[in-house]
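Listing S7. Sequence submitted for prediction.
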Amino acid sequence: MRFQSRSLWMAKDTDSPEYYEDAFCLDAEQGAAAIADGVTEGIFSGQWARLLTETTVAEPPNLDDFVQFQAWLAQQRAAWYAQIDISRLTFYQRPKMLDGAMSTLLWVTLSPKDGETDAPPGSYRLQSFAIGDCCLFHVRQGRWLRSFPLQSADEFNLTPGMIGSIDQKRDHLLEFQTIAEVCLPGDLLVLCTDAIGKWALGQREVGCPVNWENYWEMPVETWEEEIAALRRNRQMRYDDTTLLLLRVVDETAAAEPYSELAETADVAAEARSEAVTPAEEATADRGTHAPAETETPPARAAGSAEISPGE
């Protein structure tokens, strides 16, 4: 496991969380995470954002080879279209299918820097790729090291780059931004959609940087109250709001030798497994999370929080 995580999100319309169109996906074992913001003006944008995050974490696109990238994107577009029952679309939905869905996308990967003489013990190579205005903030011991891909709150007033679910023959115009730097155990990686990103950069610019550590154990109710207050006071954009916190860990230190204590735990777990229901087993096996577009997201109707095992 390369990071521990916590996720917090809140739908734009808390009375209709099924219309939440942000999405995210995490794989702590492989050290990958993605976040996306589906554009409301499109159709089935939440499904498109969810598909992009899941496939990016499982099989990221090769941005160095345009032909391969086009092939990857064609697969995702076909998968998105296959989910839609055209016969059930209303008369006002059908014209929207000509343009389809749009979404921003940002993802990160953590790769061990094993064997590199200048690499601190347990360190990783952090890479991030982005199109649009989802943000990554790299924090070390409470100090902001990096804001990516946007550097100021004013940049959010520009039209962000987006990936479309329909091939409009403009893929050659897509511009991904990338970074690569060293990441250490204990570093905090903050991934967020644009509502939080713009607010956070604005806070930093007026000398009140966000203390991201506060959100690690913040109760869900407190999170919801804070976001609702920021929206009411027009300090935060009234939009779907998603925050991911990734605490980087030293996977070599975490891999402890097998012990008698572990064996005892394994026996206890095996005995308990006979009493686990299929629903519980499915929940335990789920390694990624992105709320479904047409169902009430888990835990809460307005928002949710998840903390990965090991915290």
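Caption to Listing S7: primary sequence and predicted structure tokens for the chain studied. The mean pLDDT is 84. The chain has seven helices and twelve strands.
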